Amino acid sequence: MTRNKMRESLMKLLYQADVRNEYLYDFFVNAYELMEDRTAVNNQYFETVVRSFLDYKTIIDQDISENLKKWDIDRLGKVELSILRLAVTEMRYVDDIPHKVSINEAIELAKQYADDQAPKYINGVLASVLKKIESL
Fold this sequence. Notes:
This protein has a single domain (3-135), classed as NusB-like (N-utilizing Substance Protein B Homolog, Chain A, Orthogonal Bundle). It is built from six helices and no strands. It has helices at residues 3-20, 25-33, 40-66, 78-93, 99-113, 118-135. The longest helix has 27 residues, at 40-66.
């Protein structure tokens, strides 16, 4: 499975967790075990993203909330929120992915799964988050 497909699968799992309001490690692992074409690289990426998201969800959501323009995190669509959460998790906690790649991949996911306005909005939010991360 390519990194793009793994990223897409993780976005879908984040969406499902949000719909269920169930942010449990076992939920993610059980879903991952059903996926085909798992590799050592994917295993490491999956583990890093899931553990980081679960451990730092409050910080990730705060990064998103602080950079929303005229919007509240509770009003975001679940798809858009899942895409943002995945991208911010990567930007903050996955060292081998350049920040710009995380942003570009989030935009591509938004083009595929969200409405027409979402890619532009997600790009703006993530650009603001990137400025904050780079200033730390």
